[in-house]
Each structure stands twice: as C-alpha cells, then as structure tokens.
Amino acid sequence: MRARGRLSGYDEAMENNKLKYPDPALPTYEGLDAWREGEYETRHVSVPYAGIDYQKHTINGYDVDPDTIEFLP
User: How many other C-beta atoms are found inside a 10 Å radius of the C-beta of residue 24?
Assistant: First the structure.
C-alpha cells in the first residue's frame, strides 16, 4: 500500500544537527526531505521483559509519525 508520511522526530533531528556536539542517538536525516512517499508497512514490536509494546510505522524503511500518514491511490 502506498502512502506519504513525515519522518518521525524530524524537527528534533534538525535541531540536534545544529548543535556543536549533536546527540549520536538521534538520526541526522541528512539530505532528506521531511516527507517520505512510497511503500507503507506496519508491524507490531513487543519485548515484554523490557515493557516495550508498540506499532512501528515505516515508509520505504524510514520510521514515520503515524499521525501524518496519508494513503495514496
């Protein structure tokens, strides 16, 4: 299914890139636009012993904010 969505944490990553010593744990998204378009996938991620349980949303392998996803014809 094709969709369009905004990269997860894009604004935070851009602010981080401006720092003298950026946090290496954040993506840089260097050279990428805020929006990705392509093949949309979702999968359930669960690690019970660590208390992790969420739905991962990606477009062409990039994490996207699920609130921004627009499905394309």
Answer: 8
Q: Mean of the pLDDT values across residues 54-72?
A: 97
Name the band, by pLDDT with cuts 50, 70 and 90, for residue 63: very high
Question: In total, how many domains does the chain have?
Answer: 1
Alpha-carbon distance of 40 to 50, in angstroms, equals 27
CA distance 41 to 16: 27
Q: Which amino acid is at 39?
A: E
Q: Which domain holds residue 29?
A: 2-71
b/e map 60-72, b = 16+ CB within 10 Å: eeeebeeebeeee
Write down the pTM of the prediction: 0.85
57 in Cβ contact with 40 (< 8 Å): yes
